[in-house]
Write a structure and sequence with these properties.
Layout: E1 3-7, H1 12-24, E2 29-34, E3 54-58, H2 64-74, E4 78-81, H3 88-93, H4 96-116, E5 125-131, H5 156-175, E6 179-184, E7 186-188, H6 197-206, E8 211-214, E9 220-225, H7 226-239, E10 245-248, E11 253-255, H8 256-270, E12 281-284, H9 299-305, H10 313-326, H11 328-336, H12 340-347
Helix pairs in contact: 1-7, 2-4, 4-5, 6-8, 8-10
Length: 352
């Protein structure tokens, strides 16, 4: 039986991972530590909140006393660190929170794990979830990012993640910590906070609002279905080499405008409006430092660990569209903040 500390497990990717893990490994202990900032939502975990091996803790990864206590109480042997401020636009408007959570928080987790595992690190795992954005921007004809690509972050968000990646690597080199780092491409799927591209387009279109496109819409991203990301992390935890980095990508490069157009086309079929949703597409001023292209070379995942993504983009997008159409009330609660009432009801108003 493994005893996992999953940080940020009430967010989009984290909550999908917690549900995935409990489904695949029901005998394991899963402790979910989340600060429940704006993107953390316990409604995402309602179906497993009474699972025998599951525990939720409302806390911050920068709180060393809290983290130390959990390591001691739960005899944690595996850390999966999703906790992060992750939205580029927010990092441009207010970078301080990104420095605190992404750098200081990772440092606190590493120090707590080092203290708890001193002399017993061989069977332990500390998996740090990072992003393709640490590598910077690719030219259209350039080869995809490999794990050896130099770091060149271009936003406060990606710079903070790059710094945390370097800390993780240093703790392996200096202290022999059993760390693993995964760099993932853009995730999509159920329970994603509506500020991100795909749910934003879906909801704006359904409500007849302008569907914004930054710049010329020709920025390219590699898209990874969130369940594939979860299975990739599972593979790295099982067989990854401590100290190694693994790129987890979806092999799905798309221009932003093509994704937006495809979403509008599919919505025209799934939930027709008065006119085509494509008429709502509106070009807006590009954001500062907008990276032109990301692309992930995930061959190490395949050759070393036997992992490949199982969803192509049209299939995964169709599943995602249907989920949002079936869960519009969840979307409303997220955007208005009403979802926080669920936590207050479950755990008490004073805990918020």
């Amino acid at each position: 039986m493994r005893r996992l500390l999953v940080t940020g497990g009430a967010g989009f990717i984290g909550s999908n991972f917690v549900r995935y893990w409990i489904s695949c490994y029901p005998d394991d202990r899963v402790v979910n530590l989340d600060a429940l900032t704006y993107a953390g939502n316990l409604e995402n975990l309602r179906e497993i909140e009474t699972a025998p091996g599951y525990r939720f803790v409302h806390g911050d990864i920068t709180d060393r006393d809290c983290v130390d206590r959990l390591f001691a109480e739960e005899a944690i042997d595996t850390v999966v660190n999703f906790a992060a401020e992750s939205h580029v636009d927010r990092s441009i408007l207010g970078p301080e929170a990104f420095i605190k959570t992404n750098i200081q928080g990772t440092f606190v987790l590493l120090e707590a794990a080092r203290a708890a595992w001193q002399g017993e690190a061989q069977d332990r795992r500390f998996l740090h979830v990072s992003t393709d954005e640490v590598y910077g921007s690719l030219a259209p004809e350039a080869a995809a990012f490999t794990e050896q690509h130099r770091y060149a972050p271009n936003s406060p968000y990606s710079a903070s993640k790059a710094a945390s990646d370097h800390l993780v690597r240093a703790y392996h080199k200096t202290y022999g910590m059993p760390v693993l780092t995964t760099n993932c491409s853009n995730n999509y799927g159920p329970y994603q906070f509506p500020e991100k591209l795909i749910p934003l387009v879906i909801l704006n279109a359904l409500e007849g609002k302008p569907v914004p496109v930054y710049g010329d819409g020709m920025n390219i991203r590699d898209w990874l279905y969130v369940d594939d990301h979860c299975s990739g992390i599972d593979a790295v935890l099982a067989d990854g080499r401590p100290g190694s980095v693994y790129n987890i990508g979806g092999n799905n490069e798309w221009h932003n405008i093509d994704i937006i157009t495809l979403i509008c086309e599919r919505l025209d079929n799934l939930q027709p409006g008065q006119g085509s949703y494509q008429d709502l597409i509106t070009y807006v001023k590009d954001r500062p430092g907008h990276d032109r292209r990301y692309a992930m070379d995930a061959r190490r995942m395949q050759t070393e660990l036997g992992w490949t993504p199982q969803h192509d983009f049209p299939e995964g997008l169709e599943e995602t569209l249907k989920w949002y159409l079936d869960n519009l009330e969840w979307c409303d609660r997220v955007r208005t903040g009403e979802y926080r009432k669920y936590y207050a009801t479950q755990y008490g108003e004073e805990a918020l």
